[in-house]
Amino acid sequence: MRRSRASRIAEVAAPLAVAVVGVVVVAVLLSTPAAAQSANRSAIDDLNEQLLYVALPLVLFVEITLVYALYRFRNNDDPQPTTKDPALEITWTAATGVILLFVGLSAFFVLANPYISPAAAAGAPDAASNPGGAVEIEVVAYQWGWEFRYQGENVTSQSQLVLPNDRDVRFSLVTRDVIHSFYVPELGLKQDIIPGQSTQARTRATETGEYTLYCAELCGVGHTRMHGTVTVLPQEEYDEWLDEQRAEN
Ligand SMILES: [Cu+2]
Question: Is the domain covering 135-248 a CATH 3.30.70.1140 domain?
Fold first, then answer.
């Protein structure tokens, strides 16, 4: 007896579906986030995790339904179109609406987070959450390097940005020439720097250590050299570092 086309498709689709489910499970296991290194990173990681918990059951539902349908109807040589089913149509439209609303709102709340969109939250009273006052740093990008000016500290550093741990830091970013982009992936920081404008970024590092700063905007032949280090130190060591910098000058 000749096998139907559907059963041959099912033979291909079943292992494929198993592979997809396997990949999703491995991705979930690998993506279990370690403690975030900053307030920004924590907001972004939480959003990723929330969306994953919505996406995972959907992927499983679609794949399992697909494999079931292929198997169940593999010998159906006379398929009929689905007749009208208003209840089913209303259900899947409403379910899709609820899911999209959840995804949209989750993303909106992260976008409105003052660490993610500091310009949108400018002027918001946050002194209470920031008793030590925010550290203000002016970032000057140029072809091809970085300069950091610690406001009120009389300290300037090149290529090495030093931040105190567990304290708000506000950056105002300017460029001397073309468009650059300030990018510290591990701290969840990314902000374009536009000629003639001062853009804002904000963070609160929550883990001491060393991170890499990149320029994320192709800015000329030296673009690949345009990186630096970000060192997050406990407050006392940060103060000592500032003193050392002043003593050197
Ligand atoms: Cu650049």
Answer: no
